[in-house]
Amino acid sequence: MTDKDKGEIRDETQAPPSSDRAAERAARQAANRAEREARRQARQAERVRRRDSPAAEVPAAPPASTGVFNILVVGQGQRLGMEALLFAASLRRHAPGWSGRLVVAEPRPEGAWAGAQTAMPGPIRDALTGFGAEILPFTAQHFGAGYPYGNKIEALAALPPGEPFIFFDSDTLVTGPLDRLPLEFSRPSASMRRTGTWPEPPLYGPGYGAIWKSLYDRFGLDYESSLDPGQPDEHWERYLYFNAGWFFGADPQEFGRRFLDWALAIREEPGEALASQTLEVLLDQVALPLVIHALGGGRPGPGLAGLDGDVTCHYRDLPLLYARESDLAVETVEAVLHDPRLKTLAEAWEPARTIVLQGVGRDRIRPMFQRDRPLNEGRTRQMLKKAGLWLR
């Protein structure tokens, strides 16, 4: 019996009285308001301190990031292991001055991954440590083969508490000086390279607003302050929604605890407003905006445009990289895979060997597409598969 089935037949007589639930919700809302106000006052005090500091009178160069921070990616098996290795090599190539910890989290073959082959091959592990990465194991208790995207939620437990972090999907390249971005870790944010994939409101309702509001109300969050007033009502971009390809925050333990608790709560009891919605693929992207909003964050500012821009590239798969990404991304992946430290490993990984080393990406895939406008990802995948060029 699935969790959804269990939720549907749950004995409603065991639920707390509605008055108790309302009181609990009001208490959570009050606590969250107090927490947000404390953060607001702290940020205001810091702005005042900087304004009144004599150093503020001297024009300064654009800041690098706010101190040293940790980077987290997931490595698992050959494919994700090679993707993590591409990330590590491109990081060292384009951000040589970055001095934080690069953590590659590897799920153990136990818990939710019991019976699965999760370990990265030894040569990939050796290459990762050669690029300064630390491989840290973690046990996934709640998500596994049934929802591998849950790795990013449970892997946060591998990071040390109280240290700022940024998570990247493994299929990401660093193409610029990541260490020079003005990351404000006290104001979490995430990738805006997304489309209106969730929710999908049914014809007769509820609509976008009612669906999202039900989640904010459920977790005691202020819904109105999450909206983008520049977008019309019932347009998907009005509502806080991210791609979970990257996100950052001040404390991975606090972030991860909320992320896990709320994702599990949504999965196990979606609620009436979400009854018609699919959660099997996008659960992380449903919970992520709630976590970021609860921790005082929101949409990234213009200073972070380089993420999913000229500083990082979430390419997803090598065929898609050649189909739609920038010349800089193509030059980066070719440079790192021709590096003698990676070339032997690349030859053993079919997508890299065929698409990059043998030139199929440049010679066949790249000429198939016009990149002067955004490409529809689904249509692009179909064209690549039809041409026999879909390798991953």
Briefly say what this structure is.
Helices cover 41% and strands 9% of the residues. With 392 residues, it is of the alpha/beta class.
What would your notes on this structure say?
This protein is of the alpha/beta class and 392 residues long. It has two domains: 65-204 and 241-314, Spore Coat Polysaccharide Biosynthesis Protein SpsA, Chain A, CATH 3.90.550; 317-387, no CATH class. 41% of the residues lie in helices and 9% in strands. The chain contains 14 helices and eight strands. The strands form two sheets. A six-stranded mixed sheet has the order 3-2-1-4-7-6. Helix 3 (77-94) runs parallel beside helix 4 (122-130), helix 3 packs across helix 10 and helix 7 (252-268) crosses helix 8. The radius of gyration is 22 Å and the shape is globular. Residues 1-13, 21-54 have a biased composition (Basic and acidic residues). Residues 1-62 are annotated as: Disordered.
Show the helix and strand layout.
Blueprint: H1 3-8, H2 18-52, E1 70-74, H3 77-94, E2 102-107, H4 122-130, E3 133-138, H5 151-154, E4 165-168, E5 172-174, E6 189-191, H6 208-218, E7 243-249, H7 252-268, H8 283-294, E8 312-314, H9 318-324, H10 327-337, H11 340-347, H12 350-357, H13 360-365, H14 377-386
Parallel strand pairs: 1-2, 1-4, 2-3
Antiparallel strand pairs: 4-7, 5-8, 6-7
Task: Kindly list the characteristics that best describe this protein.
392 residues, 9% strand, 14 helices, 2 domains, single chain, disordered N terminus, two-stranded antiparallel ribbon, alpha/beta, globular, six-stranded mixed beta sheet, Spore Coat Polysaccharide Biosynthesis Protein SpsA, Chain A, 41% helix
